[in-house]
Design brief:
Layout lengths: L2 H10 L1 H9 L12 E3 L5 E3 L4 E2 L1 H14 L3 E7 L4 E6 H17 L7 E5 L4 H13 L2 E4 L6 H11 L3 E5 L1 E4 L2 E4 L1 H10 L6 E5 L14 E2 H5 L10 E2 L3 E7 L7 E6 L1 H13 L8 E4 L6 H13 L3 E5 L11 H9 L3 E4 L1 H10 L16 E4 L6 H11 L3 E3 L11 E2 L16 E2 L5 E4 L12 E6 L14 H9 L5 E10 L5 E6 L3 E4 L2 E4 H8 L5 E11 L3 E10 L7 H15 L8 E4 L13 H9 L13 H12 L5
Helix pairs in contact: 1-2, 3-4, 3-5, 3-10, 4-5, 6-7, 9-10, 12-13
The structure holds coenzyme A and adenosine monophosphate (AMP).
Adenosine monophosphate binds next to β25 and β26.
Length: about 625
């Protein structure tokens, strides 16, 4: 079937289309009700289906005769280790860890926070939760203690799984102080704190009041797979919105399984037995969907890479992993390749490796800039597939389907909408725009299986943030357009969300921290263009009257505050004092105007602004401070 026929079928008769996809995977009880509205009016998929995501990812492969196949390769240049686990081994280990959780009293519907580096136990922890019907909430290891604390308070976990450290290049990052600080900051006190004592950072866990992971799983009775409804939550994953408070995106079991299992073959061109690698982190949605669940649902071999694209040990490390493990389909954020290009612009290190296994290069997480696209095309000589998606959807909204029909690519475009996504471009009044006209990218209700049905504990926020602007359409938060062939171009966020090195964060979160400095009266954080990270935050500050502080010292203090309260990955490095901030008469700071002005893009100064001269005044200050030229 062609892409076009498949896409048309998915929109003309979504129920039949997804019913057929659901029949491609095994169930404890196959669904008969394919799509129905829940009490909130949200369309839910496979409502009477009964399954278990851990069983689908592990046990059933063993039952189907794939027990001896490698399921997970842990490749860690950070620690110099490579370990391979078969489906049978991973099943046994996961059942044991799940048993450890059950022994602690953790069960169906309980939340478990996983705050871990890229070690196999992180994957096992996720699958163990899925096995017993507990809801995991992975918190990226780069988050500082206050961010972890706010997630503890929102999700109220029964247990936290963690480790004594992460490893960033050659730096050991101790986690125990962060964990302890987070627990002391949080009002909710999780009873069980289980910590993997890594050799790189040994800690006397008992003295710290923490449980050793080895003792926790030792002698535990292996737990069976708990049957759950397709609509029961599998996990929650916090993501940044326009406000300072992150949203707990909920993923269910059935729709997620159907969409991801199908996507492995249809989008990524991978069959059972193929080796698939997403070089991301389990703390992000890419890690959830395509390090853990997708490849394992699809019976593939997945790679857990604890390293960086460069300096672990060099810019050839990706090629080494592709060669050593015979990767067929590889998925990375463009920022990682930009780091490689900086160190090895001619891609010379590639010539030392055999990359004949590699068939597809996928990229996502941020805009694929033309330089990186052409570099990849030239040096890899295989299809370079940009695809666009979000934490909320869990899988591609737009892509080029390697397993169905590879269409010609156009640089700058993630190609066409995936089956199930009725994508439209709307103007501010909700009118549909024609070819090459830029507007809000929205998806017509219903969203396909796998996309989020709600926000943890706050369905009103789900409605308000995503469904209230254009009735009947999901607001992606991205702006863009379609060309005359329907190809989609994503031009960036239209809200106050930034994308820094493939990490999504809100300007509001950063502003809350910066505004907390005693010298700062008011501030605006703007995500500005950066050749390496895509975007980086820039703080514009108004000082309190009478404050006398050296600007460089203030900047240093703010940088330290953001690192301690949000995390170093925010890459907050610049803060500039200005005399005034541009605001509308209703008091809203014009961040988008500032961003465009700083990035040298055309912008329109709204008529509602107090004094248009403020923009030029800020530009002058930023030139003096070397932020703009
Ligand atoms: N734990 C602790 N600190 C972390 C961290 C983690 N998990 N991840 C990043 N950091 C720290 C870094 O050590 C660095 O600290 P420093 O300022 O003290 O040097 C800082 O945060 C900045 O990190 P980053 O911008 O990520 O740069 P990097 O050089 O560490 O890594 C990349 C560069 C490209 C490898 C990384 O940004 C990356 O993998 N990005 C893609 C993310 C992704 O996969 N997104 C999902 C969409 S595909
Ligand atoms: P996250 O939820 O962290 O995965 O971030 C999702 C956001 O990243 C999207 O809303 C986009 O703004 C951006 N993004 C992801 N993939 C792409 C892509 N291929 N092209 C452009 N932007 C992207």
């Amino acid at each position: 079937m062609t892409y076009a026929a498949m896409y048309q079928q998915s929109l003309a008769d979504p129920k039949s289309f997804w019913e057929a996809r659901a029949a491609e995977i095994p169930w404890f009880q196959a669904p008969t009700k394919i799509c129905e509205q829940d009490a909130n009016g949200v369309w839910r998929w496979f409502v009477d289906g009964v399954t278990n995501s851990c069983w689908l990812a592990l046990d059933r492969h063993v039952d189907e005769g794939r027990g001896d196949q490698i399921a997970l390769i842990y490749d860690s240049p950070a620690t110099g280790q490579v370990h391979k686990y078969t489906y049978a081994e991973l099943t046994t280990w996961t059942a044991q860890v799940a048993g450890g959780l059950v022994r602690l009293g953790v069960g169906k519907g309980d939340r478990v926070i996983i705050y871990m580096p890229m070690v196999p136990e992180a994957v096992i922890g996720m699958l163990a939760c899925a096995r017993i019907g507990a809801i995991h909430s992975v918190v990226f290891g780069g988050f500082a203690a206050p961010e972890l604390a706010s997630r503890i308070d929102d999700s109220r976990p029964a247990a936290i799984l963690s480790a004594t450290c992460g490893i960033e290049f050659d730096k050991v990052i101790p986690y125990v102080p962060l964990l302890k600080e987070a627990v002391s900051l949080a009002s909710h006190k999780p009873v069980h704190k289980i910590v993997l004592n890594r050799p790189e950072c040994r800690v006397d866990l008992k003295a710290e009041g923490l449980t050793d992971w080895l003792e926790f799983e030792e002698d535990a009775q292996p737990a069976p797979c708990e049957p759950v409804l397709a609509t029961d939550p599998l996990y929650m994953l916090y993501t940044s919105g326009t406000t300072g408070k992150p949203k707990g995106v909920i993923r269910d079991n059935g729709g997620h399984a159907v969409a991801l299992a199908w996507s492995m073959r249809a989008i990524y061109g991978c069959d059972p037995g193929d080796v698939y690698w997403a070089a991301s982190d389990v703390g992000w949605v890419v890690g959830h969907s395509y390090i853990v669940y997708g490849p394992l649902f699809g019976g593939c071999t997945t790679i857990l890479f604890e390293g960086k694209p460069v300096r672990t040990p060099d810019a050839g490390t990706f090629w080494r992993v592709v060669q050593d493990h015979k990767v067929k389909s590889f998925f990375v954020a463009p920022t990682a390749f930009r780091a490689i290009i900086k160190e090895d612009p001619e891609c010379k290190l590639k010539s030392s490796y055999d990359l004949s296994s590699l068939k597809y290069q996928f990229v996502a997480g941020e805009r694929l800039d033309p330089t990186t696209y052409h570099w990849l095309k030239t040096h890899l000589g295989i299809p370079v597939i940009d695809h666009w998606w979000q934490t909320e959807t869990g899988w591609s909204i737009c892509a080029n389907m390697a397993g169905v029909e590879l269409l010609p690519t156009k640089p700058g475009s993630p190609t066409l909408p995936m089956p199930g996504y009725d994508l439209r471009i709307l103007d501010d009044e909700g009118r549909e725009l024609g070819a090459n006209q830029e507007g809000a990218v929205v998806i017509k209700d219903p969203l396909p299986p796998g996309a989020f049905p709600t926000v943890w504990g706050d369905h009103e926020r789900y409605v308000e943030a995503y469904w209230s602007q254009f009735e009947g359409f999901y607001l992606t938060g991205d702006g863009g357009y379609r060309d005359e062939d329907g190809y989609v171009y994503i031009m960036g966020r239209t809200d106050d969300v930034m994308n820094v090195a493939g990490h999504r964060m809100s300007t509001g979160e950063l502003e809350e921290v910066v505004a907390g400095h005693p010298a700062v009266a008011e501030c605006s954080v703007v995500g500005i263009f950066d050749a390496d990270k895509g975007q980086v935050p820039l703080g514009l500050l108004l000082l309190k009257d009478g404050v006398n502080i050296e600007e460089a010292a203030l900047e240093r203090e703010l940088v330290a505050m953001v690192r301690q309260q949000i995390g170093p990955f925010a890459n907050f490095k610049r803060a500039v004092v200005v005399k005034r901030l541009p605001k509308t008469r209703s008091g809203k700071i014009l961040r988008q105007v500032l961003r465009k002005m700083i990035d040298g893009q055309p912008y329109v100064t709204p008529s509602t602004i107090d004094d248009p001269g403020i923009i030029d005044e800020i530009a002058d200050t930023l030139r003096v401070r070397g932020v703009m030229c």
